Amino acid sequence: MSDDGALPVAPYRLSVPRVVLAVTVLALLVRLVLLGDRVAHFDEARVAWWTMEYMRTGSFEYRYIIHGPFVQHVNTVAFALLGTTDFAARLVVAVIGGLLPLSALLFRERLGGVEVVALALFLAFNPVLLYYSRFFRSTVLVAGFAFVAFGLLVRWVDTRDAWYAHLAVVFVALGFTAKENMVVYLLCWLGAGGLVADTALFRRGDGRTGLDRLRAYRPESLDDLLDRHSPAHVAGHLALALLLFGFVILLFYAPRVGSGDGVGLYAALSNPAQLPTVVEATVDAIRGGFEYWFGHPSDPKCHKDNVIDGYLCFLDRAVTVLRNYALPLMGFAVFGFLAERYAAERPRSLVMFASYWGFVSVLGYPLGTDIFGGWIMVNALVPLAIPAAVGLGTVVRWGGDALASDDRVGVALVLVVLVSVAGMTAVTGVSSSYLHPTADDNELVQYAQPNQEMRPALEDMTRAAHADTTGPDVLVYGSYFVDGDSEAVRTPACIEWFDSLPLAWYLEKEEFAVVCETPETVETAAGNETRVPQSVGAEGTPPVVIARAEHREALGQRLGDGYRVHEFDMRTPGIETVMFVREN
């Protein structure tokens, strides 16, 4: 690093912001490539369906089971512009995940130039962050909003500009609109802040006690604020922060009523007298969601007999994800933390804070989550990117020192480390996100993910159903996929919605006419009961028939020739499914 903060790359001198901007552009590109290729996960399909329902009816209410409402609101815009596709569903998450490396610039006064660039690289290309940035789920959103909010608070302390604090409040509120575990981030910040304060108060060597340091402590930003502004001015900033927070929360969480009648935000805009009722309904809905997620006891995980064994099972899975898909980041994070904690003359509070925040998240999230998914480690990897950047920056500095002293062995060793890390990250990222995004041996794949063999079946189904306009488009067959509840709110009404969620999304977004049927029990000539299709194979059978694979033989006999057969798993692995598509 030169004195003016430029990265000396002969024959050019690249400023740190320009390098971070280039990294961000690449991060966006790798997230957008083949974004709609992977078949929708059950969770993706569920949120996408409710977003589509909101667009169709104009009615909205917070459903805590699908987490925060941020994606439902912003995806109405994506769907309106791009159509109801998997690409459009994932676009907002991909863009926000791709822009996250820009947040590295918020720490430029606390980190060196190489460390800032390293932080951007880890946020851009870590395989776990890459995979779940291409996933219609709010984990990357809440992690990104929280990280940016933290960076803005750091900038507020560094610049003493109150508007950074107000922006931080907005991003904290956005974190709450993305996912309820934003409250866990605040708790992590309190814990990490306490540990940093403890280190500062009880540092030995100058003859002062912790109480002496506490009495003498006066933050420069607070000192400057009190000197330049009156108490009324400070109170005004606090009121503005509360107003911004409340506005964002109300904007996203408040109910909407499609007809314009009843309790809803739009009705309150035309009749302000309804606003208190809308606020009360919003608060009640939020309270109910948070009581569900944080108020009920957690069952033992992994079907274990007790909480400890269940926790250890989930922790083992989390460590497996980190070992196989984030080993460079985790290795550099541990190294960077140790180097900063024990080798630095005065450890930087930023690095210590982020380390405590990230490491406790590794241990804590397997305990707090109810269903395991590799996405929970996103909450740990984002803050751990800071000590990882310090670790990588230390290795790069060693390489620079070796180069300056003409130490060829030292330079070679550093180059081997850097090339190995880059190669491992690239190979793992390409394999997990592009080549095998639904494979059974990909630990980033959660079990409610259909395998990729479903994609050609869906494409075949869409062509055949749109080509045939004589009657119903799709027949869903069998008791596993059919419940026959014609009055259900979720559509198609006759299907067992929660067992066939991706199908519900794909059938509804194409507006297919769906009918359902279960096999009829009949008595054979030998006196045995058997289950046979009823109307399948008769005149007017829809061009597409979907069922569990166990019905393939019976359906094949009834349908006869002229159907192409697709088989795929609705989960990873499991729920073998068959789709018959009329070829003509």
UniProtKB/TrEMBL annotation:
Keywords, comma-separated and alphabetical: Membrane, Transmembrane, Transmembrane helix
Origin superkingdom: Archaea
Domain Glycosyltransferase RgtA/B/C/D-like residues, every copy: 67-190
InterPro entries: CHP03663, Manno-Trfase_MA4085_prd, RgtA/B/C-like
Chain segments annotated as transmembrane: 20-40, 87-107, 114-132, 138-157, 162-178, 184-202, 234-254, 350-368, 374-399, 411-435
Name this polypeptide is given: TIGR03663 family protein
Natural source organism: Halorarum halophilum
Organism ancestry: Archaea, Methanobacteriati, Methanobacteriota, Stenosarchaea group, Halobacteria
